[in-house]
Structure formats: C-alpha cells, structure tokens
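re: ur question from yesterday

yeah so i grabbed the chain u mentioned. its 228 aa long if i counted rite. heres the sequnce exactly as i have it in my notes:
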Amino acid sequence: MNLDTAVKTINSLLEKEQPKTFSSSWICTHSPSVYQFIRTNFRTENDHVDWDRFTYGLERKYLKRWTHYKRKPAKEYENQAEVDLILIKYQDKIYTFVAPIDDTDREIRNRIIIAFVRIAQKGNALAQQELVKWMRYVVDDWIEKYYPLFKWKGYGEDIDEKIRACIRGYKYTGSFVGYLFKTLQYSARGMRSLQAWSLDDPVGEDGATKVDFLTQDIETGEVKLFGK
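ran it thru and got these structure tokens back, copy pasting raw so excuse formatting
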C-alpha cells in the first residue's frame, strides 16, 4: 500500500457510506489496513500521527467532514526542542517562505507551516512565534503584489495577530496559506489605508502608470500588478 492507494480507498468508502463526519476512528473501523498504514508510515517531526499529510489528498467535498479531535483550550508552554526538530528537518527549505521557486517548493512550505501550526495549537508559544516570523515574509510579499491586500500596509501588529488567529483556528480545510490569504482579504474590505497609493502613480520613465500593469488571475480572481 502507498499513500495514493490509501487516499483512493478512503475516498471510495466516503462516497459509498456518506458519513456526516468522519475521523481516524471511523477510518480504523471501516478500513483497518489504511489506518495502520497511516499510523505506521506517516509521523510528524514530534512523532505524532501525521493525519494532515493524509487528509490533504482527500476530495475537497469531504475535507469539512473530517474531525480529528476536540481540541481543548491549550495550556501555553515553551519547548524549543519541538521547534528545532522542524527547523532541522527543513533547514534547506526555509527559503520557500521568501522565494519559492515552483509548486514543489510551495507544497514543501505548506508542510513546514502545518508542522508549526499543529505544535502551536498544542500550546507551544515558541512554535507560534517562529511561524509568525516566517509568515510575515509571505504576507509582506502579498501586500506588495496583490491590490486587495494593500490596505494592510503599515498594520504590522494587526497582521501578526491575524496570523496568530489563523493558527488557532486552522482545521483540515486545505492550505493554511490560502486560509490566511482569504482572511486578510476579507478583513481588508473595511479597513482604512495608512499609506497613500494610487493606480495613477507613474512606473518607469515612459509615462506608464500602475493601472497599465494591473492584471487579474482568471482562476483565482485575484488582482495584482503584472510582473510582481
């Protein structure tokens, strides 16, 4: 058995059974072989079962039905060793927060993020601090590239708090990066921009303005400056 086979097996079972919710216990009952395969072969840096790695491959319509466990309010603690395990494992891939090269880099970045998120949700304040630090590189880049997020420029502390809130609230609904982007986008709608900025601002020396470089992604609908 491999990951693709395990995912296909559970997707087929979900299609057949149509449970309103499902969990690791449901998988254990309906497909013990898949349950044992995941428990044995997919472990986090801190030796927990890596259900995120598995659920990421499920059909999107089933993701919202996944319930891993009822998370009690976490008692805050500090454990640098838990953070270091993640940093050491991905030490050659931390650059993906600053300059991801391709989709493979973005996928690796998402794994790093989720690793920090799960430890932070257990209460490790140092994991939260580490992730906020690296996610600021991502968000600051968005603010420069995507017009809908420009209003966040200058709101440094508020951005950090939004990241922390997303860390606390993230479940099993796909990419954390996408979840954070949408949260910032929706929140920006009622914000007042702290910095003056106009699409009529000149770009270069040929008389062109920023509006001349405004494009919209056909798939996502996001508006951004071409070349950014």
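noticed a couple things. The mean pLDDT is 83. also The beta strands are 214-216, 223-225.
anyway ttyl
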